[in-house]
Amino acid sequence: MPRVTIDFSSFSEITDLPPADRELLAAATTGLAHSYAPYSNFRVAAAARLQDGTIVMGANIENAAYPMCICAEPNALAAAASVKPGMPVVSMAVTVKAPGRVLSAPASPCGSCRQILSEHESRFGHDLRLILRAETGPIYVFDRASDLLPFGFSGELL
Ligand code: THU
């Protein structure tokens, strides 16, 4: 029977990461302050590195009409498209914080975010490296975001 496997790296210490990933995670942690999450109390921030090294931020922005909540990851991609239109995001660090709790497991991008990140890769023909970490605990690194969405819907079918 065919099987799908996902390759990723797990690091236990931030100091085990390459400096560029460490810098991006630190930026994401700073970005948690920009989250607007009064309903879930679950803050998410994403720091995106563009191909020229520019780092932009996105955080989750919630809404009283719950389905209107916008995740941190697409907000970071929108920020990237705003400052450097036409330039790919080559890596993204995502971190989470829930006031009053210490989160120790990385939060994986939701299905919708995976779809958006995957299309960013196919649109630009460039891998988007993902670095995930909670406040403490392991750091997961995926060489390309689309690895998180096997059998995803693709524009090639249209
Ligand atoms: N959230 C993100 O920002 N990214 C994800 O990939 C998953 C969920 C946000 C949406 C909402 O504001 C909060 O986390 C709880 O679902």
Automatic annotation (TrEMBL):
UniProt superkingdom: Bacteria
Enzyme class: hydrolase
Swiss-Prot/TrEMBL GO biological process terms: nucleobase-containing small molecule metabolic process; pyrimidine-containing compound metabolic process
Family matches, as Pfam families: dCMP_cyt_deam_1
Coiled coil among keywords: no
This enzyme's EC code(s): 3.5.4.5
Domain CMP/dCMP-type deaminase: 19-156
CDD domains: cytidine_deaminase
GO CC terms: cytosol
Gene Ontology molecular function: cytidine deaminase activity; identical protein binding; zinc ion binding
Entry's family note: Belongs to the cytidine and deoxycytidylate deaminase family.
UniProt protein name: Cytidine deaminase
Species this protein is from: Neolewinella aquimaris
